[in-house]
Amino acid sequence: MKISEFESGKAGTDAQAAAKGKILPEEFRASLHREKRQGRPKTSREEAIEVAMKALEEVPDVREDLVADIKARLERGEYRVDPAEVGEMMLRRMRADRIR
């Protein structure tokens, strides 16, 4: 299914705006090195980011179990997508984009 142009454009704009006000991973790593040199304790925000980064490293990029399930269902001919449903969802998304 195609992501609507509005949503993809909005996501790009939101990400750029959000990045300006947040600690980026490169900046965070640099702050950890500065902390070791300066001997100051980590802020709660730095600790939260560190925990989140460690958790993110443990999450796989692809959910292999879901991919394998869908592949198996496709090979058995059991995976069906209703074209009318897909079309309806695309039309709803298009209408929603126009409202915004």
Q: How is the secondary structure organized here?
A:
Layout: H1 5-21, H2 25-38, H3 44-58, H4 64-76, H5 83-99
How far apart, in Å, are the first and last alpha carbons?
Answer: 20 Å
Radius of gyration: 21 Å
The tally of helices reads 5
Low-confidence stretches: none
Strand content bin = under 5%
What general outline do the C-alpha atoms trace?
flat
- The tally of beta strands, per DSSP, is 0
Structural class estimated from helices and strands: mainly alpha
User: Roughly what percent helix?
Assistant: over 70%
Question: If you average the pLDDT, what whole number results?
Answer: 79
Question: Can you tell me the number of structural domains?
Answer: 2
Order of helices and strands: HHHHH
For the biggest sheet, the summary is: none
Q: What do these coordinates show?
A:
With about 100 residues, this protein is an all-alpha fold. It has two domains: about 1-60, no CATH class; about 60-100, no CATH class. Helices cover about 75% and strands about 0% of the residues. The protein contains five helices and no strands. The longest helix has 17 residues, at about 5-20. The mean pLDDT is about 80.
